[in-house]
């Protein structure tokens, strides 16, 4: 886990989680930050994907991309939270984020009101060769086009730093479209907001599940 600046860091930023295990923790109202999973880890905390500096508790370090991310900004006090699952930094694991029944209230009929954000597909299974990260013959993560090629066009910077000039449909190879086809409820590139950002109102404060599936 990584807190946004000015917010506390829960659980020292990371812990080991076995198959079918859960961890429960609380954060204060108005907290903001991100969550990710690490894979191929040894006893010292060095991980093949999502590594945060060869340690179990990340202590404020981010995960090395490519990595699937769950991001949230809490409002609290019955206000509106914003959350999403992002593949902008690439992909390593399927994951989803959803509000816990009984802790929220819907205020619209929108698909993006208190529903599940996430990516259920195994993108590693059909990651293009030029984006693939391998351990031996196995693909363990899939880079974003920005991470792989580091161009202004793919990274939505420079002359492409606005939604009007950073459109995946204009790119020579539309890598984000491959991600979006497999994971329609997740961010595929920086300006993919309209079909990726979810909101929810607390009742009075929403609880969420982040699941690696």
From TrEMBL:
Q: Which Gene3D superfamilies match?
A: Thaumatin
- Can the keyword Disulfide bond be found in this entry's annotation? yes
> Keywords in UniProt for this one?
Disulfide bond
Q: Which Pfam families match?
A: Thaumatin (PF00314)
Against CDD domains, the record matches this protein to: TLP-PA
Q: Which domain of life is it from?
A: Eukaryota
Kindly list the cysteine pairs connected by disulfide bridges: 41-47, 52-58, 114-200, 119-183, 127-142, 146-155, 156-166
Keyword Disulfide bond among UniProt keywords:
yes
**Protein known as:** Gly d Jun a 3-like protein
């Amino acid at each position: 886990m990584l807190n946004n600046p000015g917010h506390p860091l829960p659980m020292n930023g990371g812990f080991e989680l076995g198959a079918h295990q859960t961890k429960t923790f609380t954060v204060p109202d108005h907290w903001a930050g991100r969550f990710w999973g690490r894979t191929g880890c040894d006893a010292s905390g060095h991980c093949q994907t999502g590594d945060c500096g060869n340690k179990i508790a990340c202590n404020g370090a981010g995960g090395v991309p490519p990595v699937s991310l769950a991001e949230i900004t809490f409002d609290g006090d019955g206000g509106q939270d914003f959350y999403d699952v992002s593949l902008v930094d690439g992909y390593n694991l399927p994951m989803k984020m959803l509000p816990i029944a009984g802790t929220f209230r819907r205020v619209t009929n929108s698909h993006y009101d208190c529903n599940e954000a996430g990516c259920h597909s195994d993108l590693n299974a059909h990651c293009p060769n030029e984006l693939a990260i391998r351990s031996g013959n196995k693909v363990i993560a899939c880079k974003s086009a920005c991470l792989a090629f580091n161009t202004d066009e793919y990274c939505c910077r420079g002359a492409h730093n606005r939604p009007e000039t950073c459109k995946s449909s204009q790119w020579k190879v539309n890598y984000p479209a491959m991600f979006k086809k497999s994971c329609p409820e997740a961010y595929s590139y920086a300006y993919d907001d309209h079909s990726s950002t979810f909101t929810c109102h607390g009742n009075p404060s929403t609880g969420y599940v982040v699941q690696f599936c």
